[in-house]
């Protein structure tokens, strides 16, 4: 893919650049890429084909032109244009992965125990070293750290008559450098990096740390400005990033550059405003350090293009995606206790969604219980354990908790403002570890000795709408499939769908959830042999429904309905809907599940070489998780086969096929109480790394997990 660079000459033409001692020209060619050439016999200096090659050649380009008397501005321009082709694709293939060793990492978001966000101005190096000893002793190998923006860039503005702006200053004194960066703060940050490296701890650096725990921290000279859209504010942020990255890029402790902490909270605006800001910051990072990945650092990304922080623009500009899966702040999550299945699956589900829909690696960058006002320390520790096992089983490379230490003794904002921000640490403010710290230490010790997990078996692809918010249906599909005993991945409805034997199309809420072309693509998959499950409720409409499914709508109107659905095992579940849909069945369509009145709930009919199932209810959007028997019936129709099955829906199982024919199993108890589970096992049980497995009976503690192999 070749990028068209703004302000380059038209296709096939050459433009002479001024500012070099000898002639330099740019040539734009959409078929062959953008070339940097000169007129002195050096030939083609650069061609935008492979991002890896781009970065490898950039240094020689810059050094060559510096030696030839090229002005610094032009040198920077050459570097920026050389990188801009990579921006559109998130520099695919250019920067190494964030976690390259294949291990699962645990860590924490770190502020010093004595001062929280004021650690840089109240600097105590001996306390920082003690903190890092505490964290490393719990098996943590990664920290996310934050150079607080106004401390590191203490930009101030000076005014003359009638408050007319006169000049920029630094803490009321002349600028110490072009970026107004405090070099003493840089020395303190380097101390932190050195101390982390000595302990084998790696760092992800949140560059623009302006939003923190419900407070905005902004340099005094920029206060009152819209810092994400004001040109002067953005210019100073770019200078800060340039200075900071250039100064610290040599340090081996740093493994990634995070844009900053949840920067989508720094200001108002639309998707275009945020894209422009991210492009400025990401471009400056890449110009100065093309060797490290750029990490999103944002949260609550949307699936639609209209949402301010959305996945498509993140995929375009970022190398690594991040999730901050707090049930308290996430829609559809804080509906049940923290230590039950919905919240136990939340980090793995959301992180898999981000990775699948962006095509970028993703990790859990902030997880947490939101303190003892939500769940006790002991239950939070148990819930953290099941979250970590769930993330590990899904191939997610890291799980990072918020935060390191309680901040209940700090008397400044934001800790003075917000009760829920004060008691979130793995450690008490005194440095004593909480049960969550001990749970992380025990898990970190286990994964060091556990077998390396191959990728999990994925049985179905869930198609996610980009025309209305998709998190609710995506999360519902994850929970229902997990309870039904199979695993899913995600795909965007408006893209070409990956090959799969089994697709799930969750219900929307209206008439524009899926485009005609997305709908037709899915039907084509069924025609070629796939099984497709469609759930339809809450007033949603799909065109050509009768021809595709054999279910004809007779009447559909906005009267709420409540039905009791009968299951094959004699049990039943309630199914509520915002609308009533009266249907009749066409030839070839049969009922798999019906309500108490005999009306169809789940139907199936052949479609080409495949089949289409229709559930008359928006299962994924419901708070209740009782509808999982529909997913179980659909999986049977799709021919899903697993080596280990169970009857208990709250025992989650992932299967990891090995090249030698073995299958590794991770079983997670999503109940906050111990349980004994009867398994059906296709094969002989081999080694058991964790859990008590006697024959086909598995005993697990509350929110605990087992790991074993089947031969």
Cα distance spanning the termini: 45 Å
Major sheet description: 8 strands, parallel
Unreliable segments of 5+ consecutive residues: 1-59, 64-75, 84-95
Major sheet: arrangement of strands: 13-12-9-6-5-16-15-14
The counted number of beta strands is 35
Helix/strand class: alpha/beta
Number of helices: 15
Mean pLDDT: 89
Shape: globular
Describe this structure in words.
The protein starts with 13 loop residues before the first strand and ends with a strand. The protein has an 8-stranded parallel sheet. Strands 18-17-19-20-27-26-25 form a 7-stranded mixed sheet, sandwiched between helices. Strands 1-2-3-4 form a 4-stranded antiparallel sheet, with helices on one face. It is an alpha/beta fold and 711 residues long. It has 4 domains: 14-87, no CATH class; 105-155 and 181-449, Alpha-Beta Barrel (TIM Barrel); 460-638, 3-Layer(aba) Sandwich (Rossmann fold); 644-710, Golgi alpha-mannosidase II (Immunoglobulin-like, Sandwich), CATH 2.60.40.1180. A hairpin with a 3-residue loop joins strand 7 and strand 8. The chain is globular and about 85 Å long. The protein is 28% helix and 25% strand.
List the SSEs and their pairings.
Layout: E1 14-17, E2 24-29, E3 33-38, E4 44-47, H1 51-67, H2 72-87, E5 105-109, H3 125-137, E6 142-145, H4 149-152, E7 155-160, E8 164-170, H5 183-198, E9 202-206, E10 211-212, E11 215-216, H6 231-248, E12 254-258, H7 271-288, E13 294-295, H8 311-317, E14 321-323, H9 341-358, E15 362-367, H10 377-393, E16 398-401, H11 435-449, E17 460-464, H12 471-484, E18 488-492, E19 502-505, H13 516-527, E20 531-535, H14 545-549, E21 551-557, E22 561-566, E23 572-577, E24 580-585, E25 590-594, E26 600-607, E27 610-615, H15 628-638, E28 644-646, E29 651-657, E30 663-669, E31 675-681, E32 685-690, E33 692-694, E34 697-700, E35 705-710
Parallel strand pairs: 5-6, 5-16, 6-9, 9-12, 12-13, 14-15, 15-16, 17-18, 17-19, 19-20, 20-27
Antiparallel strand pairs: 1-2, 2-3, 3-4, 7-8, 10-11, 21-24, 22-23, 25-26, 26-27, 28-31, 29-30, 30-35, 31-34, 32-35, 33-34
Helix pairs in contact: 1-2, 2-7, 3-5, 6-7, 9-10, 9-12, 10-11, 12-15
